[in-house]
Amino acid sequence: MSAIRLGIDVGGTFTDLVSLGDGTLITAKVPSTPRDQSEGVMNAIRTSEVEATSVAALAHGMTVATNALLERRGAKMALVTTEGFRDVLEIARQNRPSLYDLSIDRPPPLIPRGLRFTVRERMGPDGEIEALDEESLKEAVAAVKEAGVEAVAVCLLFAFAHPEHERRVGEALREALPQMHVSLSSEVLPEFREYERFSTTAADAYLAPKLAAYLKNLAGKAEAAGVPAPLIMQSSGGVVRVEDAIADAAGCVLSGPAGGVVGAAYVGSLGGYENLLTFDMGGTSTDVAPIIEGEAQTTTETVVAGVPIKLPMVDVHTVSAGGGSVAWADAGGALRVGPHSAGAEPGPAAYDKGGEEPAVTDANLFLGYLNDGAQLGGEVVLRRDLSEKALDSLGENLGLSTEEAALGIVRVANAEMVRALRVISVERGLDPREFALLAFGGAGGLHACSLAEELGMRIVLVPRAGGVLSALGLSISDLRRDYVRPYLSALEEMDAREFEKRYEDMEAAAADDLESPDHTRRADLRYAGQSFELTVEADDLEKLEERFHATHEQRYGYRMEDEAVELVSLRLVATVPVEKPDLDETEAAGDAEAERREANFDGEWKEVPVLDRERMGRGSEVVGPAIVEFREATCVVRPGWSGKVDDVGTLVLEKADE
Fold it and tell me: What is the pTM of this model?
């Protein structure tokens, strides 16, 4: 066998593997191991039976950083900042999570006040105002040492433009405490806005020790198994080496979801669909994202668990509606779904692992969309009788029949996911009716047609590898590094030579980090006086202003051509492309109908055909209502929908005109 690329994605419920090489695609799905995610990774490799010596690259997406933030289980850490600015993290922005709710609290800052220390110094917009006081630096270093922390974030005023004092503080800390992780804001995020810079740097220091421990553990296991050291997916949609991921821990927060978006963009483009809304429904959560002209969109406005992280990340919106999301009755007697998930342990009631509360998977199983006795991940066997028992119990609390409870759970979960899709389409100035919905994840195909109907979308795409598409995206991800430099200037007063020089400096840095990378230049711009920016392509200086006006109009519905435009930051995306295989679909292998099954559509039970995706091939057709069972996922084709398998193995469904 020729050299192959492995992609392994760890989700909340299952760990997925895709192996690409020699013109073949091998997949595997095993239960995740929350206590040590690396165990699930190695189990997936063993289950796939891929020969270790034939593996050329192993790309990995995980939820270690995400979970550490969500569960507040990162490192004990300290902050060193400019005297008088100890409470920037506490003050934050003066917006409220819920404007009229006086009782609601913000999530607590990552660093308690007692672990925030200061030094006397001051930088201003034009450079040094007050020299760094060495005595206060010694006191701060001693205080950090005495605090017994695992990491420290250093965030001084104006360090994004003048990092000299901050570097000296970092040098003193690293010299006195060589085992401690030190994050400097001038290295993590050299951009203006104190709170976002402080918050991102704090997140980086908070996550780095835990991420380092996990990745070093995984790298050791990979080496023992004879496979290459893993490449780690970043939130921006590209992979980096383990040491680079540890150095940029905050950039790995959306590592898992980013792989799915990359895979969706690739598969969609192969089939001729470049404008997509992606819909990734797993066991724990649902991730949605826009893809425009074949490219995943990125944002620097991500907030994870109440912590702003102003690094480039794939523009993913996540809601806690997955196959394992638990249904319950609230105090007012209303049916709710999530945010609590049954996860992999104990899982939905149907898993027979001790779970007694009904989850979305239980509703789908009871309604006939999933097969009683179906095997998931090689270890879990679904039991409809256990789902029915759990649904009965919930129905009694709500005064509903078992069927009504199951239908209600699906409708509530769908409503949550439709809201998420509106956030990344309508609220971004995009009309969902002009996009195709690409569904993946283990549960994506179960709900795709219903969501498309709600949004007025007429095309649904379900890739052959839809159940493991995040892993596929990892296996084809380019090596990528992102760079940013502050450049506050009115566009009309900008020095073209200085503009070019700053990009050349970033390109030189990229050449040191990557081998012969491709470059994409971007810039953050705003109307003078605005408190937010938009990022546009910056390959042509002459077109910069018009691109900004056009982007602003698409996002906000208006442009102000008589207003001055300001440059805020310059960005560079450096990538080293990897070879991407074609996905060729084979001919159909006989009659695809495996059985007929009773399934419930909008309260009416119907006997529908169940098609085996493994026996379908190029040109195979399906007419709804029907169920298509993929190797790692299931697709429900609702009445009024029909379609066929295209040349790259994607099931293309279209809604009939009414």
Answer: 0.87
